[in-house]
Amino acid sequence: MLVGVFALPNSVRGAYVLDYTEPTLVTAYTAHFVHHAEAHLATNLASYAVVVPTAYLLCLFSDRRRLFRAAFVSFLVALPFGLSALNLLFIRRAVTYGFSGVVMGYFGLLTLALFCYVEQQTGVDAGERHAPAVFFLGTAVIGAAVAPTTSAGAAVAVAALAVVGLYARGLVGAADPLARLRSGFVGAPPGHLELCTVGTLLFLGYPLIAFPTDPFRGGAVVNLYTHLLGYALGFISAYGFRLFPGR
């Protein structure tokens, strides 16, 4: 679908970007599927091709395939509207477009899936109430990624790590996960430890790509706000779905 939209004439694509001064319900959705540069499209396609399959495998092997299916569809249908609406809180003369915010929603799903996968493989019965610890750890990585250019990034990183410490204190006291983590993958089928390793490296490394120190690229500006919103909304909605009674 993204490649098909990119194949349209530039004048047609331009009509479907979100103009902050003249927003419409149509462009609030379509803007997230429009790209004007090949490099921009290639980056988002590559990110999707890495993040989504990894999230799927983590959900599959932790018996949470239904979570992935629900999130996959709902992110495509609803997340673009949510991202656009929250962007319109700050009216300015600019336009926005690109699939990266939706990809970050899937990255939020990957964050939850990674916690669930490690919990299942190691037998740590911590309960999903501790999953936000991983979300705030990811937020700390994001804050550290942008910290060289803004003091707010450092403040966010420190605050997020403090919250992680609160969660970790309860997690360690309840289940001694470190000892279980060392022995949890012993005897696991081939590939399970590798999947955990890939998921962890992606969880720690992808924010450094999605939140560049210099957001100005080729005359355009990387919308870090949309990226952070996508990550937060992706995790929170998937986490809420897991906790919802009768899910």
Q: Care to describe what's here?
A:
- The protein is 70% helix and 3% strand.
- With 247 residues, it is mainly alpha-helical.
- The chain has one domain.
- Strands 1-2 form a two-stranded antiparallel sheet. Strands 3-4 form a two-stranded antiparallel sheet.
- A hairpin with a 2-residue loop joins strand 3 and strand 4.
- The mean pLDDT is 88.
Brief account:
The protein is mainly alpha-helical and 247 residues long. It contains 11 helices and 4 strands. The protein has one domain.
Which characteristics define this entry?
247 residues; mainly alpha; two-stranded antiparallel ribbon; 4 strands; 3% strand
Give helix % range.
Answer: 55-70%
Please tell me the total number of domains: 1
Give start-end ranges of low-pLDDT stretches: none
What is the N-to-C order of secondary-structure elements (H for helix, E for strand)? HHEHHHEHHHHHEEH
- The N- and C-terminal alpha carbons lie at a distance of 30 Å
Oligomeric state of this protein: single chain
Coarse shape: globular
Radius of gyration from the CA trace?
Answer: 19 Å
Reported for the largest beta sheet, the result is: 2 strands, antiparallel
Q: What's the average pLDDT?
A: 88
Count helical runs.
11
Q: What strand order characterises the main sheet?
A: 1-2
List how many beta strands DSSP finds.
4
